[in-house]
Design brief:
168 residues, mainly alpha, hpI Integrase, Chain A, two-stranded antiparallel ribbon, 2 strands, 5% strand, globular
């Protein structure tokens, strides 16, 4: 059991903070687009930020968005447990991802992981329900705790978070 509780309001608050920092020119519009996209994608897919999302390319997302029901194919070298798997893209993240990849080369990394990681560590944004600051791993924790809010059923949750395998 974890002492970290991440709520939908925490995710909304982080998006509001990104928007505020963009408006006050504390972060650029390009960074704000990336930060919003990584927060939404992390919360709505449950993918690990460092092991998986930090390695995704623009081309991989572009390919996923070309089909009727967008779904990313994650190769084994971009997964912590080295297991290839599929990740359906929630409708709420399609728009932000399209904006993020517009005009970019396919071989570029999708996110500037180190930039957002340093920003969030420096700012120390508090979580609403516990005595902790928000960290990027909390996006996966949100997906785990609130699968119903992102329209996951139990089998989808199990597949995404454990790739359908149980722990040893």
């Amino acid at each position: 059991m974890t002492s970290r509780i991440v709520t939908l309001e925490d995710i909304r608050e982080m998006i509001r903070r990104i928007n505020h920092e963009e408006i006050t020119n504390e972060i650029s519009s390009d960074r704000a687009i990336q930060y919003r996209a990584i927060f939404l994608m992390g919360a709505f897919t449950g993918q690990r930020i460092e092991a998986t999302m930090s390695k995704l390319t623009v081309g991989e997302v572009r390919k996923a968005l070309e089909v009727d029901k967008p779904c990313m194919s994650i190769p084994s070298d971009k997964d912590k447990i080295k297991m290839a798997h599929y990740v359906p893209l929630h409708p709420n993240i399609i728009g932000p991802l399209k904006i993020l990849i517009e005009g970019r080369n396919d071989d570029e990394l999708l996110f500037s992981y180190h930039s957002i990681n340093m920003w969030i560590k420096h700012k120390k944004f508090p979580l609403s329900r516990c005595e902790h600051h928000f960290v990027l791993g909390d996006l996966r924790k949100f997906a785990e705790q609130h699968g119903d809010a992102i329209c996951w059923n139990d089998s989808n949750r199990s597949y995404i978070l454990t790739h359908g395998v149980s722990g040893v």
